[in-house]
Amino acid sequence: MRHLVAAAVLAASLGVAALGVAATAERVQPIRFSPGSFGSEVQGSVVRGEQALYSLSAQAGQTLTARITADEGNAVFQLYAPGVRPRRDDGMLVVEGAALPGAGEGEDARSWTGRLPETGAYLFVVGGTRGNASYRLHVTVR
Fold first, then answer.
1. Cβ atoms < 10 Å from Cβ of 117
2. Which of 54, 57, 84, 90 reaches 20 to 30 Å from 7, CA-CA?
C-alpha cells in the first residue's frame, strides 16, 4: 500500500493540531479509550486508492499493540511517529515522517507491537490492498 494520500487529506480537526500537520480537507479521527480501558476499536471502510487517518496520543515507553482485520483480508496500515509532515507531489499529499519499524510504506502491516519511542500523537494510515476494504482496527496501549 502506498501512503499517498489524496489532496483532500488531513483536514483541520482536533487530531491534526496534535500531529502538527497542515490543514487540508480530510479529517484525522482521534482514537480514544474509555475511562479505565487500555484498548479501543475503530471501524471503517476505504474506497480503493483512498486512506483513512487516525491519531493516537501515547507516551514514550508505552507498549502499543495494533491489529487490523477485514472480512476479505485486504486492509493494512502504516504507523508513523509524532511529527509527521505532508507535502504535495503531483497533486497528491505524501505523508513524510518516521514510520515505525515493520509498519512503513510497502510493509502492509496487519499487526504491530512495540515500545513507543516518543511522546505525542501517532498517525495510522489505513488502506486496502485490493478493491474497497471494510475493517476493524484494534489498538491497545499499556
1. 14
2. 57
| Burial readout 57-95 (b: 16 or more C-beta within 10 A, e: otherwise) | bbeeeeebebbbebeeebbbbbbbbbebebeeeeeebbb
Q: What contacts 75, CB < 8 A, 6 or more positions away? A: 46, 68, 69, 110, 126, 127, 128, 129, 133, 134, 135
Q: Tell me the mean pLDDT in the region 28-51.
A: 93
State what percent of residues in the chain have pLDDT above 70: 77
Sign of torsion, CA 23 124 84 104? negative
Q: Which domains does the chain have, with CATH numbers?
A: 4-141 (2.60.120.380)
Angle at CA 83, nearest 5°, toward 35 and 109?
70
The model carries a pTM of 0.80
